[in-house]
C-alpha cells in the first residue's frame, strides 16, 4: 500500500462525474495540455492528418515535452462548439477533474466544482477508482 492509499480523503464515499462537454475546462485562460508522442499520433490519425502536419500545426513545445496549441483567446486549438478530438483526447483531458493538483485540497476541489457542471452527475467513481486515475497521471 502506498502513501497515497493510506489515508482518508474528502472523497472516500466516491464522487459522481459525467462530462457534459460544456467546454469550460477547454476554454478561458491559457494553459498547458500535455501530449505524448503516442497521443499525437492517435489524434493525427483521427483527424486524417499526417503526424508531421499535426506536429507543425497543433502542438507547441514546452519544458520537458509538448502541449496542444491554443487559439488567440486561450481556448484549446481543438475546441469548436465541442471537442474535435474527444474520442482520442489526451490523458490530461480524460482524467480531469480527478487530478492530484485538484484533489489534494478540498478548497481547490470546491473551486473546480463551481466550474465543472459534470461533477455531481453521472456514475459514482469510488475512492479506489479516483486514486487509480490519480496514480495514472504520475
Ligand atoms: S468543465 Fe466539466 S463538464 Fe465541462 S467539458 Fe470540462 S470536464 Fe466536461
Structural class determined from secondary elements: alpha+beta
SSE pattern, N- to C-terminal: EHHEEHHHEH
Low-confidence stretches: none
Largest sheet: 2 strands, antiparallel
Keywords, separated by commas or semicolons:
single chain, 138 residues, alpha+beta, two-stranded antiparallel sheet, 6 helices, globular, binds iron/sulfur cluster
Description of the molecule:
- There is one protein chain.
- With 138 residues, this protein is an alpha+beta fold.
- It folds into 2 domains: 11-21 and 90-138, no CATH class; 34-85, no CATH class.
- It is 33% helix and 10% strand.
- The protein is built from 6 helices and 4 strands.
- It has helices at residues 37-46, 51-57, 91-94, 100-103, 106-115, 127-136; strands at residues 15-17, 59-62, 65-68, 123-125.
- The strands form 2 sheets. It has a two-stranded antiparallel ribbon with strand order 1-4. A two-stranded antiparallel ribbon has the order 2-3.
- Helix 1 packs across helix 2.
- The chain is globular, with a radius of gyration of 16 Å.
- It starts with 14 loop residues before the first strand and ends with a helix.
- Bound molecules: iron/sulfur cluster (SF4).
- Iron/sulfur cluster is lined by residues 19-25, 96, 115-118.
